[in-house]
Amino acid sequence: MSSIFCEASKYLMIIFFALYTWECFSVFKRKTKEHQNTIFRRQILLLFLLHLNGYMVLFDQTENPKIFIFYGAQAVFFIIVISSYKLLYEKSAQLLVNNMCMLMAIGFMIISRLSYEKSIKQFTIAVGSMILALGIPFLIQKISFIRKLTWLYAGAGLLALAVVAAIGAASYGAKISFSIAGVTIQPSEFVKIIFVFFVAGMLYQKRGFKQVAITTAVAAAHVIILVVSKDLGGALIFFVVYLVMLYVATGNPFYFIGGLGSGCVAAMIAYRLFSHVRVRVVAWQDPLSVIEKEGYQICQSLFAIGTGGWFGTGLNQGMPEKIPKVEQDVVFSAISEELGGIFALCLIMVCMSCFLMFLNIAMQLKDRFYKLVALGLGTTYGFQVFLTIGGVIKFIPSTGVTLPLVSYGGSSLLSTIIIFAIIQGFYILREREGKEHGYKTAKNNPKEK
Predict the structure, then answer these.
(1) What is the pLDDT of residues 218-274, one digit of tens each?
(2) Which of 78, 253, 256, 271 has the highest CB neighbour number within 10 Å of its CB?
């Protein structure tokens, strides 16, 4: 009976998530607010159905009563998050709130399956992060001097990265974190946010060659420190984000082409200098030839994805624990194995809908500084998703970055929740700008009233 329930549940979860994903894109076709709100309510229902279904399976498989208590705490958390955004920010982007909760729900579910203790830690960090982040949209609306702290962003970012390079703990050849009172912190997750603010502050007014040269030098210093720390995934994110922001700010294609060229040269140099890089490239080119060592993780990742097929083995029915660091770098493979390829594709589409929302908000903002920040944060999020999923499916060499809101990792979770909160602040500003513009138009043209 238990196996029948597990088998039926995996199809239900696929159906719930597929319907949710469809609504992520159908909402853009609805012009009236009433129709959009109806879609958002359906999404919330599907979120809770999927979440309940997953934890019912975990309880059935483990018979651990703590699972249902933990589920109840999460359900209350999601209700509070959704309600808080509605009560505190009437004009908030409901799609982003729903997607954020859905991605966290999937993350909690798969981490609970892999390690109950780690899922408790992840949930605790999520609660603290959300308490902190709920005030950010308010600050975005009230504080205007954030654009004037350009060099503070640069100084704080460089200092934090330098500290990690000097005293950070090595993990798989890279120095990416350090511990304080037993708490592990990965500063690059937060530096990437203030890095975006630095670049936007430098380029939103002045875009001459001298300003670009200074900004490029400071951006290069960030990347170089990350390379010295052997955090090449982080360095790649910083590099791509800067390149995109520079091109959009200046509109000069030569900067973009030159940046790509210098990036290719730097990649070749890094390949020759760091054995860490060569190992990952070898594992990417032919993982089966080095399956005993360098290629073990990527081989197990591909085996897991292949085993899952389109519909998955069922929650708690696969063997994702065979993959090293599965709950962090390779969580997408665990999801693919147990929840199936269709579910995994829907996950990619939900992440894409978040990315499109970020870009849509950036394009419609009138303030050039906010526009560049929204673009930079959107690029950060989208490119990190690409690196994570591209690495586990062997599309690109593995970079060791996490899947935002889904993978285990407190620093990654907190920084992503902060990014979503900042974008929410920009969305509310955009909505207010549109309302004020409409009011002025109606006032100047009485026929428009």
Answers:
(1) 999 999 898 888 788 888 999 999 999 999 999 888 888 988 888 888 888 877 877
(2) 78
Return the bridge partners of 180, or none. Answer: 183
Residues in the chain: 449
CA distance 206 to 105: 43
DSSP collapsed to 3 states, the chain? CHHHHHHHHHHHHHHHHHHHHHHHHHHHHCCCHHHHHHHHHHHHHHHHHHHHHHHHHHHHHHCCCHHHHHHHHHHHHHHHHHHHHHHHCCCCCHHHHHHHHHHHHHHHHHHHHHCHHHHHHHHHHHHHHHHHHCCHHHHHHHCCHHHHCHHHHHHHHHHHHHHHHHHCEEECCEEEEEEECCEEECCHHHHHHHHHHHHHHHHCCCCCHHHHHHHHHHHHHHHHHHHHCCCHHHHHHHHHHHHHHHHHHHCCHHHHHHHHHHHHHHHHHHHHHCHHHHHHHHHHHCHHHHCCCCCHHHHHHHHHHHHHCCCCCCCCCCCHHHCCCCCCCCHHHHHHHHHCHHHHHHHHHHHHHHHHHHHHHHHHCCCHHHHHHHHHHHHHHHHHHHHHHHHHCCCCCCCCCCCCCCCCCHHHHHHHHHHHHHHHHHHHHHHHHHHHHHHHHHHHCHHHC
How far apart are the C-alpha atoms of 175 and 75, rounded to whole Å? 36
Q: Are 108 and 74 in contact (CB under 8 A)?
A: yes
Cβ neighbour number for residue 116 with a 10 Å cutoff: 15
CB contact at 8 A, 324 and 66: no
Mind listing the pLDDT tens digit for each residue in 164-221? 888 776 666 667 777 776 677 888 899 999 999 999 999 988 888 899 999 999 999 9
Model confidence pLDDT, tens digit, residues 318-350:
888 888 888 888 999 999 999 999 999 999 999
Dmax of the chain from CA atoms? 76
Separation of alpha carbons 186 and 234, rounded Å? 11
Q: What is the pLDDT of residues 262-279, one digit of tens each?
A: 888 888 887 787 777 777
Structure tokens at 127: 């609660």
- Beta-carbon contacts of 179 under 8 Å, excluding residues fewer than 6 positions away, are 169, 185
Of the candidates 196, 150, 139, the residue with the CA atom closest to the CA atom of residue 429: 139
Residue with tokens 């513009």: 437
Count of beta carbons in the 10 Å neighbourhood of residue 433: 14
Instruction: Read off the tokens for 258.
Output: 């030159």
Q: Enter the tokens of residue 202.
A: 């430098």
